[in-house]
Specification:
- With 60 residues, this protein is an all-alpha fold.
- Helices cover 77% and strands 0% of the residues.
- The longest helix has 40 residues.
Amino acid sequence: MSPHTLYVAAAYAITAVALAGLIGWVLLDQRARAKELAELEASGVRRRSDKAGKQRAGKP
């Protein structure tokens, strides 16, 4: 195994670790945002785009 092969293998390994970290970060952040959204909706805050929710609340 030449030094060049070791360099390329290390570059791929570092890239794989970085990508795995970014994917994990995105998944954890998605879970946190979904939890925050659920808490807001449970407390009565509704989305502006939720027209069905406004009609259910008795607002036109």
